[in-house]
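User: Predict the complex.
Assistant: Input components as received:
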Amino acid sequence: MPDTNEIISDFRIILSDFNGREYSGPVEHDTLFMQDIGFSSIDVVILGETLETYYKSDISFGDFINEMSRQNVQDVPVGALAEYLAKTL
Amino acid sequence: MPFLETNGCRFYYQQKGKGDDVVLIHAFTSSTAIWLFTNTIDRLAKKYRVTAYDLRGHGSSEVTPAGYRSDEMALDFFEINRELDVGRCVVVGHSFGGVIGMHAAFLDPDAIKGVIFSDTYFPGLKSIEPNMGQSEPWAELRAQLHKSDIEIGPTVDFGKLFESVKGMTSGQKADLTKNMGAMSANWIATLGRLAGTNAGEAAFKESGFGMDQIAAVACPVLALYDEYSPFHQTREFLEARLVNIKSEIVSKAKHLAPLQNTHQFLKLVEGGIAEMHSL
């Protein structure tokens, strides 16, 4: 099972060629997918699918996003997603 | 990523779960993301086979120059269902998604067990909603965009909106992010994809689905209208004219009930689907 730092490294690989775009900016614990990386909401949908394919696992991404929304978090922090995956995978 | 090509367009879709079929149709200018952000797909997929797709020109589906009238999008719905072997289903539509679901139920009653829609304005009922063009959600969007020097005019004109945001500068985008948050700003930026299409006009055409056709939909209908909806005259018309309708008010919501009151929205949707599939 990957730890949080390994998952953030995986994010860098995934984002280097993601949904027709190449992202090479910083991807750190406090990076925000929408504000910093420029994700639209549909990119978040694609990210969920991409992660399930990458880790070959049902990650219940909707539960994570819904929890973020429930807490009124208006963006997706890289660190929070990595921590969630570290617990889930 | 799952895509299918049909009816002259490449559609992005998701399908999850097993059981009776439920099809989710998002609103005009929205995407399947609304079902993710409200956990609707995962929650319904515990009991049903849930299919959701991005309408043409939306989300990850292909942008086509035309094909955005409700009758054309109802045809997309039928073709996607055929490609994915979706059987007789309950349709859940948000806003314009409800127009598509109801139009489909009118065109092929055998394909649909019931329709649940959320805060839907019907172009065919324009005569009873004469103030739609000055609706409050549009006024709020206009005010927000105005702060970033993006002008979309006082009355609803999506074609103008698409053209305006297509030419948005990086400075305006940064302003929007500051004023509205990254999620809303990035959503608005994506709408520029629809510039040059006829979507802004076509989605607001009656398209053969006028007052009499709407009133002729005979399948069970659950009409959800938001507490602060601009479309309560539509709700009153539907309650008076449809033979098989129930309606509910979603509290504390203004056109975006799935996001603004997810708990009540999902509870009503789950109850409606269970009742329609039990018939």
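Chain A has a mean pLDDT of 92.
Let me know if you want any component modeled separately.
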